[in-house]
Write a structure and sequence with these properties.
Layout: H1 3-23, H2 27-42, E1 45-50, E2 54-66, E3 71-77, E4 80-98, E5 103-120, E6 125-142, H3 144-155, H4 157-172
Length: 182
């Protein structure tokens, strides 16, 4: 066996574990990996200027896990490529603070169904859809008047999903999407 053959065998053997590891990655394993640290990263995270609520601070997220398989679908219509990514997440033990309203809230259990639609058009777009089929044990604390004002917003999963979609989409509008599709 000459030197070239030995080198090629060495490279193949050296790269084999990497190729096996890469082959083993799925959308679910990637999402699970992200979620492992995401609940820690979300603690002490602030969202400025939420409509009708002001600044929202996420104080704690007890648990954040994937609740269903992550799906990734790609479609093409009129030469426009669209990528649709869907996932659902179970969240429990969440505590948020709204310093502008002097109110804090806790959410015992929630499930978020999230769909991200990315369209690669001459002017790319990203659309986020969030539904909250499970929204339990929501408690609002603070002064009587502010609690009375904020409680309907936080008790309704429909309003919460609308507020989350609005905040996410306004943040995504600041991203120059055409740079993502080079």
């Amino acid at each position: 066996m000459n030197c070239k053959h030995v080198f090629v065998v060495f490279v193949v053997i050296a790269l084999l574990p990497i190729s096996i590891q890469c082959h083993g990655s799925t959308a679910d394993s990637i999402v699970d990996s992200i979620l492992d640290s995401f609940s820690v990263d979300l603690a002490n995270f602030s969202i400025p200027d939420v409509p009708n609520l002001g600044k929202v601070e996420i104080i704690d997220v007890g648990s954040l896990i994937r609740a269903c398989p992550t799906t990734i679908n790609e479609t093409a219509e009129d030469e426009i490529l669209t990528l649709i990514v869907s996932a659902c997440l179970n969240v429990s033990g969440t505590v948020i603070n709204m310093p502008d309203k002097s109110v804090s809230a806790s959410v015992g259990q929630a499930k978020f169904d999230v769909t991200l639609t990315i369209s690669k058009a001459p002017e790319p777009t990203i659309e986020v859809t969030i539904s909250i089929p499970v929204w339990k044990s929501v408690k609002v604390h603070g002064s009587f008047w502010f609690t009375l004002f904020v409680s309907p917003f936080l008790q309704s999963p429909t309003i919460v999903s609308f507020l989350l979609e609005s905040v996410i989409e306004s943040s995504l509008q600041k991203v120059k999407l055409e740079h993502l599709f080079i």
